[in-house]
Structures are given as C-alpha cells and as structure tokens.
Amino acid sequence: MLNETNLQGLFVPLITPFDTEERLDLESFGRYFSSLLQYDIQGIVLNGTTGESPTVAWEEVGTLYKAARACLRPRRLPIIVGCGTNCTAESVRRSEAAGHWGADAVLAVTPYYSRPSEEGIIEHFRRIASVGIPVVAYEVPSRTGVALSVETMQRILDLDGVIGLKDASGGLALAAGLLPDCPKPILCGEDALLLDMLHLGAAGGMLASANVETASFLKVCAQVSEGNTSHAVETFDRLLPLIRLLFRESNPAPLKWLLARQGLLASGTLRCPMGPVSTAMQAELDAFLT
Ligand SMILES: O=C(O)C1=N[C@H](C(=O)O)C[C@H](O)C1
Q1: In this predicted structure, what is the pLDDT of residue 181?
Q2: Among 44, 50, 109, 239, which residue has the most ligand 1 atoms within 8 Å of its CB, making it the best to mutate?
Q3: Which of 3, 165, 245, 260 is most deeply buried (CB count within 10 A of its CB)?
Q4: Binning pLDDT at 50, 70 and 90, where does residue 288 land?
Q5: Residue 289: pLDDT band with limits 50, 70, 90
Q6: Does the keyword Transcription regulation apply (predicted)?
Q7: Is this complex's ipTM strictly greater than 0.95?
Q8: CB of 48 closer than 6 angstroms to any ligand 1 atom
Q9: Is 140 close to ligand 1, i.e. is its CB under 6 Å away?
C-alpha cells in the first residue's frame, strides 16, 4: 500500500492499448508494460488521463489491473488506479472495487462538469477517503473546469486517507502555496513543470512523458534529490522538446503514436472522440525517433 511516506519518485501513467477496432489489446499491453519495467520506477497509474479513462469501461480497468499484476509477478510495484468520476457514489464504488483487487492507492480527480461548491468537492473526497484505500487527489483544472484554491486543497489534503496530491494545475502557485507547510507529498502532474516543482519540494512526478525517455526522468529526480542542480537542469532541458511535442496535441495521442512507431504497440489507436495525431505532428514525432 502506498502512504504519505512512500508516495514519492517517478510514477508512470500507462496508456491503454487498443487495436484498430478500438478493442482492448492485451498483447500490446504486455509488450509495452514489460519494456517499461526495465526501469526502476516507483509505481504506475492505470486509468489516468493517459489511460483514456473517459472511454475505458470499468470492467476493462479490472482486466488491465489483472494483466498488469501478471506482468509484474513476482515484483510488487505499486499500482494506483484512477477511480475518480464526477459522481461521488460511483467513485466510492470504484474505489471499493480497486481496494478488493489489491490496488495500492486510488487516483481521484476533482469532480468535473457539474460545478459543485467547494464544500461539495471536499465532501466528495471525504467519502472516497472513507473507503479505506489511500487516495491521491488529482487537480487538473484545464480538464475539469474547476480550479481549487490553496485553502480548499489544503482541507482535502487534511482528510484522513488522502495521502497526497497529483498537481496538474498548470502553474506553480498551488504547489508553492501548499508545500511550505504540507506534510503530505505533492507529485508533479504537469510534465513541463517537473523541475520547478521538484525545486519547490515536490516528492516526484506522475508524468505521461516518462513513458518515453524513462531513464532521463529518473535521472532528473535523482539529480534534484542529490542537490545536483546544474546537472538536473541539463538533463531536464534535453527532455523539454519531447515534453512539448507530446502535449502539443491532446495527450495521449502523440504518446500512443510514438509507442506504436517504437514497435511497442500494434496500433496507436485511440477511442473516439479522441483520434490520431495530425500528419504534421506525425512527421515531428518521426524526427524525434531518428
Ligand atoms: O495520466 C494522467 O493522469 C496524466 N495526466 C496529465 C494530463 O494529461 O492532463 C498529464 C500527466 O502527464 C499524466
């Protein structure tokens, strides 16, 4: 199980491979995930944004969880399962199920679309946390349409059972406001801000780009924790063009296309309404591979 102490380092949010008919492709999943496991990452996230959670059925998440555990055996790498929806009761049901499967924590996104009050949002997290499986709160206003204040996020982090935050707020203000007094880990969820957030005291990152150049992302984390700032800046500067490319069109389309071109996925297919990257982007990603 993850907790406030061991939620640190590099967590890689996995993509969900589909075949050209948009069906789950477990063969590609095994190949791609096994290749990622050559790196000493601290954990993975299933059914995050990168895993296309809006179009993956909950039963399929269960199938992916089993497939991931089977690939991992006998290693016991922490698995965080994306269980957050904009329905509190459904998020609670999913968290209960993930707890039964043996997940190490759940990722619960700020409830989107219905624009609840801040009190309603806190109650949402309180009910998920009361399930008893550790909760990582996930703040991503560019996707949810709700930006939480430092004070509200602090109240969410104060809840028993909430072990930390994945901060994809799009800037440094939330992390800077929370970190001086926050006893719980904050992980960067905004790939281009990894280095800045680590310097502010973030405990690590949950980064889609770390599916590629995983070793370099691990190196940045290690260099910052060793106080080796100039080398961390150099390593991160080399990663920035890739990060910018992967987010120029909606994540995870560029990432899936790249993983397919690397031969790790049979197809870079996304489920509708997400679709393939533009041909211009394909050419740029190709250039990255050469
Ligand atoms: O998989 C996730 O969850 C992530 N979400 C962010 C996003 O796409 O908004 C980016 C982050 O790298 C991983």
Answers
A1: 87
A2: 50
A3: 165
A4: confident
A5: confident
A6: no
A7: no
A8: yes
A9: yes
Query: Of all protein residues, whose CA lies closest to atom 9 belonging to ligand 1?
Result: 49
Which amino acid is residue 139, in one-letter code?
A: E
Residues forming the active site: 138, 166
Contact 221, 185 (CB under 8 A): no
Could you give the maximum distance between any two Cα atoms of the chain, in Å?
A: 51
Distance (Å, rounded) from C-alpha 149 to C-alpha 178? 10
CA dihedral for 18, 24, 25, 30, sign (positive or negative): positive
> Ligand 1 mean position to 54 CA, how many Å?
13
Quick one: tokens of 141? 């206003």
Dist CA 157 CA 150 (whole Å): 10
Q: What is the predicted pLDDT for the residue at 290? A: 74
Contacts of 39 (CB under 8 A, 6+ apart): 214, 215, 218
Ligand 1 contacts CB of residue 109 (under 6 A): no
Neighbour count for residue 145 (Cβ, 10 Å) = 12
For the domain bounded by 9-289, which CATH number is listed?
3.20.20.70
Contacts with 16 (C-beta within 8 Å, 6 or more apart), sequence order: 24, 29, 47, 51, 52, 56, 60, 64
Tell whether ligand 1 has an atom less than 6 A from the beta carbon of residue 10: no
pLDDT bin (cut points 50, 70, 90) of residue 168 is very high
